[in-house]
Amino acid sequence: MNKIVSLTNVTKSFQHKTAVNDVSFTIGKGEVVAILGPNGAGKTTTISMILGLLKPSAGEIKLFNHQPHEKQVREKIGTMLQEVSVMPGLKVREILELISSYYPNPLGIQQLIELTGLTNQDLKTRAEKLSGGQKRRLSFALALAGNPELIIFDEPTVGMDITSRNRFWQTVHQMAAQGKTIIFSTHYLQEADDAAGRILLFKDGAVVADGTPAQIKSRISKQSVSFFVDPEMSLEKLYLHSEIDDIYRKNNRVYIQSSNTDRVLELIFQEKIGARDIQIERGKLEEAFEQLTSGAKEAI
Ligand SMILES: Nc1ncnc2c1ncn2[C@@H]1O[C@H](COP(=O)(O)OP(=O)(O)OP(=O)(O)O)[C@@H](O)[C@H]1O
Ligand SMILES: [Mg+2]
């Protein structure tokens, strides 16, 4: 694999908080990777360290086999941060020209317009007068201005309307097709599923899952079989079967979670527990994701 980003045992602690805890992963050329996780999971901290804006408390980060802050590395990276800040006093065109001039091989203004949906009117506007969504578009254009090989976005679609969002992902896919490496953070599973080839699932500063969207979904989307049963009936026999992941009671129903519901049905009859009104439910993906990332577990 042609390694573009590598983190080895990276930890970041603030005074009273370990924001990122012993994280290791590598990202290869051309990958589109989502850093997925709920608020406070450590996404921005990880991205800031990859960008060289924050220094790890421990561990090592390499980009293109170099330190993140080296000039030859910086020229190959484009980024759009969670907090958009634009230079006041300058018109959008002036900002784009200024930033482009820092790079050895920039994209032209025309190309940036096509890729980001900035309009000619936007170009003539002073940055501080742009709306939130227009600022995001400018920030997207600035990320692409240097024709980067590695593009890193922190929560890129927050504040974008549907049209801007679609255009954004269309451009990202276009970039990926050109062999660019793309990393973005999000707390929407659906967005990660739609746009990424790989998901790094963060929880409490650690990577709790790393795989394709299909792999992550199969891990977090469990099916369940539920039924009524005599409250006196012991369910202990069911626990002995390894196919059953979890059993809990809710509102007089028993819920059994498993990736193999056919087998659960067999077991229910085989163990003669007198189940009535049996239903099979596919776990809702977002709910399962919440459950996995909040750490909450249903009591039996
Ligand atoms: N400068 C800081 N000083 C102290 N604690 C911090 C600092 N920056 C982040 N943290 C803490 O580290 C944890 C991870 O924060 P981080 O911003 O990386 O989360 P995130 O996954 O990006 O969340 P969000 O989805 O809200 O953007 C949080 O508990 C946060 O309060
Ligand atoms: Mg963040």
**Number of contiguous helices:** 12
Q: What is bound: which ligands?
A: adenosine-5'-triphosphate, magnesium ion
Order of helices and strands: EEEHEHEHHHHEHEHEEHEHEEHEH
Strand order of the largest sheet: 5-6-7-3-8-9
Q: Give the CATH architecture of the largest domain.
A: 3-Layer(aba) Sandwich
Q: Domains counted in the coordinates: how many? A: 2
How many angstroms does the end-to-end distance come to?
45 Å
Any idea what the shape is?
elongated
- CATH superfamily of the largest domain, called what? P-loop containing nucleotide triphosphate hydrolases
Stretches where pLDDT is under 50 for at least 5 consecutive residues are 296-300
| Rg calc | 24 Å
Characterize the biggest β-sheet: 6 strands, mixed
E-strand count: 13
Domain ABC transporter: 5-229
Organism: Neobacillus vireti LMG 21834
Keywords: ATP-binding, Nucleotide-binding, Transport
Protein name: ABC transporter domain-containing protein
